[in-house]
Amino acid sequence: MSKPEQTGTYLFIITDIDGNIVYTYPELTNRKFLNAQAKLIQTIVRYKKYLLTEKENRIKINISDGALYILPEDMYIFSLLASESEDEDSIWGKLETIANKFKKVKKPSKLEKVIKEVLYPPSGEDLYSRLYEISKKILNKVLIDRGEVPLYLGTVVKQQVYPLLKDKSIIEKEKDIMRRKILEMCNGENTVDDIASATNTQVVYTMIILADYSAQGLIDYKVQYDFKL
């Protein structure tokens, strides 16, 4: 079997049903990131499991520039985090090829040859950064759809709140200098912690100020999730 052409960004993970990492390719040094991926995969499988049938034992989470493919098989879960640069059927075929081989050998070390034949991650820098951005978008899609952070994912995920001022003319009307500085940063791009740090105020004080404007209907909050790395 010849290697396919180098296309896209990949992270292949085998986990057991308890969310423990069995094997990853390529091998990344950031264990916190890998453990977070394992817990995210476990969360998605638990969340989606009731939707699966014996013939449709596949889960795909799409975002604009990538996807997470999950194939639960017996006591193991085979997943591929990838940029969307390859045909979907081809990716499912790769996962099934590796899963079928693993059923026979049962040892990740014996998978090395077939994995390197089937998966060919891109060379170059910033692989981790690209994988992180794709995974973060998938995390947000899953948790925003779900509306909560499951307890078993809470250890590796943090919630971030971004205040957004509805009417910028309020800034000019505000006479208090500190309040004005806080309002200027409420652009939907800064977290409450960011604003407190930049204005050299305590987080609690910043939250009180924001709550005052929020009660008047002048500030909205955008919630996003990120990994604790």
Task: Describe, in plain words, how this protein is organized in 3D.
This protein has nine helices and seven strands; from the N terminus they run E-E-H-E-E-E-H-H-H-H-E-H-H-H-H-E. The chain is of the alpha+beta class. The longest helix is centred in the middle third of the chain and has 20 residues. The relative contact order is 0.15. Strands 2-1-5-4-3 form a five-stranded antiparallel sheet, sandwiched between helices. Strands 6-7 form a two-stranded antiparallel sheet. Strand 4 and strand 5 form a beta hairpin. The protein has two domains: 144 residues, Dynein light chain 2a, cytoplasmic (Beta-Lactamase); 71 residues, Arc Repressor Mutant, subunit A (Orthogonal Bundle), CATH 1.10.10.10. Helix 1 packs parallel to helix 4 and helix 8 crosses helix 9.
CATH class of the largest domain: Alpha Beta
**Helix and strand element order:** EEHEEEHHHHEHHHHE
The percent of residues in helical segments reads: 40-55%
As a whole number of angstroms, the C-alpha radius of gyration is 22 Å
Structural class: alpha+beta
Major sheet summary line: 5 strands, antiparallel
Numbering strands along the chain, what is their spatial order in the largest sheet? 2-1-5-4-3
CATH architecture of the largest domain: 2-Layer Sandwich
The N- to C-terminal Cα distance equals 38 Å
Query: In the CATH scheme, what's the topology name of the largest domain?
Result: Beta-Lactamase
pLDDT < 50 runs, ≥5 residues: none
Average pLDDT figure: 86
CATH superfamily of the largest domain: Dynein light chain 2a, cytoplasmic
How many domains in all?
Answer: 2
Helical region count?
A: 9
User: In percent terms, what proportion of residues is strand?
Assistant: 15-25%
